[in-house]
Please model this.
Amino acid sequence: MSDIQTQFVKNVLADAASAPKPTGSAFAPSNIALAKYWGKRAAALNLPINSSLSISLGALGTRTEIRVRGSVEATSSSLDRGSDVPVAPDDVYLNGVLQAPETSFARRVSSFLDLFRPLFAGRGFEVRTENNIPTAAGLASSASGFAALVMALDDLAGWGLDKKRLSMLARLGSGSAARSVYDGFVQWNAGENPDGTDSFAERVDAVWPDFRVGVLELSAAEKPVGSRDGMNRTVETSALYESWPAQARRDIETIRTAIENRDFSALGAAAENNALAMHATMMSAWPPLIYLQPESIEMIHQVQRVRAEGLEVYLTIDAGPNLKLLFLAENEAAVAAAFPELQLIKPFG
Ligand code: 2P0
Model:
């Protein structure tokens, strides 16, 4: 926890209400970026170099329940007490199982909660996190996890924060979490201010009930490098990264227009090109970042084959080996036949 983070939290909570409850709870959906976030301009406030655009995954995500040990008033003025407040340990449960404090999951949750702990008299929390995302499906749970955690804290303390502020706080836990406070299509504006006040996500005003996402879980191989280190390495060493922010801007523009016009072909092409361009920047980092496995390459070719035969299906890939397919309801049966292992997701229910 740095001073700059503490100050940021204090500013975001400046006008917050206070109506503490015994338990706070919230659900946040997972999301998949159609125009990816890759690269930070400032680490402490988790500020991205480029804006990104995602689709939230409806009922797939994280439900979190949080309570303080004992009841305390949560006010922003108590942040002033700062670091002389003793830190109490948290009990962090994941899918019903208590996580040892030294696990990376418990450590990430606790260090995020440290940002807010002074508001709760330095007490420990009990956090119960339930993910209904199929395990190992390659869907990031940090996005829905930090979004649900911030929303549950807001519910617990009765801050009454709007989505913009929730998004800014979720961003401190994980960049992609900034997008998971909304349903549907979401744009996270990178912003320019060093103080992070213009970097938050907004909902794209569109409902597309026929939009489908499919997950192809291809490989359980360990990621060579996590996203955080991977994007830093890419920014620092890849000569191709120079062209990335402009590509991101173009793709977001194309995808927004495509959503407006319900032009699925334009959306799919821009999303697929964006994901493969991101992987090109990763591969051109040094040491190289190759998240794709042989199975990923095989399936990329399979997608191109079936598309050449007339089936409108596009792919996107995050920092891992698994593919996510994009298609419309009318092609659900054909896509399922071409990709029997596909896990079907309906983002709009
Ligand atoms: C995204 N990814 O837009 C991109 C595409 C992975 C590839 O956001 O360091 O866990 O916590 O801000 O959000 C994964 O990175 O990284 C990610 P941090 P995060 O979905």
Q: What stands out?
A: Residues 33, 36-38, 46, 52, 140, 142, 174-176, 227-228, 318-319 surround 2P0 (CB under 6 Å).
